[in-house]
Known about the structure:
32% helix
Amino acid sequence: MTASVVAVIPARGGSKGVERKNLRRVGGVPLVARAILAAQGCSEIDRVVVSTDDAEIAGVAREWGADVVDRPADLAGDTASSESALLHALEELERRGVDVGIVAFLQATSPFIDPTALAEAVCTVRTRRRDTVFSAVETYGFLWSRGRGGSADGVNHDVGVRPRRQDREPHYLETGAFYVMRAKAFRAVGHRFYGSIGIALVPERTAIEIDTLAELEVAQALAPLLDASAQIDVDAVVTDFDGVHTDDLAHVSQNGEESVRVSRSDGMGVALLRRAGVPQLILSTETNPVVSARASKLRVDVRQGIDDKAAALRAWADAVGVPLARIAYLGNDVNDLACLELVGWPVAVRDAHPLVLAAARTVLGSAGGEGAVRELAELVLRGRAASGSPALPQKQETP
C-alpha cells in the first residue's frame, strides 16, 4: 500500500494575541476550517487531520470533514512547539494504522493558503528533489537591526551601497502557511528543517499570518477580494424572510393588516432548488400570516416567531441531516448574525447591515426583494454542477 500524504493542522484552544483565534472567521469561515479547505483543495493530499486540545475546535474540524487527534494539555501550552504537536499526531496516526509517507504541516493562522503551491511542494518532496519545502515570498527589502544604544545596522545589505531593485538578488520571507516533509525523516530529527531545503513561492497577497487583532482585521478586509472566485458548494439553503424575500418594507392597512412585495424571480429560484432536491427553510423572527402564505405558495418549510434563530437552525439541520458546514444562510440584519456564524456559507444581500456584510462569505449583487434569493439559487446550482451534483433542471415551474 502506498504511504499517505497527510496534512496536519495544529489548532490549540488557547491564544494570547487573539482570543479563540483558530475559531475566528475570515471571509465567513473559521480559520481552522479555511486550513482544512485548503488541504482538501490540494490534489496531492490524501487525509486532513486537526490536532487540538479544544472540544469546540474538534467539533468544527469534524464538521468541515477533517479527522481529529486529541492533543494532551502538556502539548497545548504557550511553550509547546509545533514540532511536538506534529510528532504526537504522527504517533497517534500510526496507532490508528495510518502509514504516513509525507506530512504537510499547515497553520490555521494563515487564512489564504494556496492549494496549488502546496501541491507543488508535496511533489517536490515526493520526487526527492528536496527533503523539506516551506512557503515563502520574494522580498527585496532592506533589513535593519538595532544595535547597542538603539543605533541601526544593515542586515542584508551594505549600508553604503543602495543598488536598484533590478540589480539585487531577492531574499525569501517565510510565510508560515505550510511546511512539507517526509514523515520518517521528520520523526528522526524532530524538526521541520533538515537535509536539502526547498522554497515554494506563493503569491504575496496571500502571505498574511494572523497573530494580532490588526492582522485579523486586514485578513477580513482582504477575504472578499481573494475569495471572490469561490464556488458556493452547499447541500441546503436557509433564508431570512423580511429584507431577503422582501425589500424590508410593509404596507399596513387601517385594520392593521400587512402586505409585502416579493419577487417572482425569487419564487423561480426556490422552485429550481426544490426540483434539484436541495432542502430549504425560511426562518423568521416574527409571526406573520404573510410569511406562512408565501412559504406555502413556494412549498418551503418555514419556522417563524423564533426568538433563538440559531437554535432553530441547529434543530432543522439535525432533522434534515445536513451538517451546518454544508448550509448556506442568506440574511440581511443583525438578528441573522448568530446564524451566519454557524453555517459554512454565510451570505448577505447587497443592502444588508454593515455587520452582516462583514460576516458574509458571499455578498450578492441583488438587494432584498429584488432577486437575491434567485441569485443565490443559481449560484448554489452552479456550484452543485461544478462538483458533480445534479445540474440545473430544464423544466421550469411557475412560482
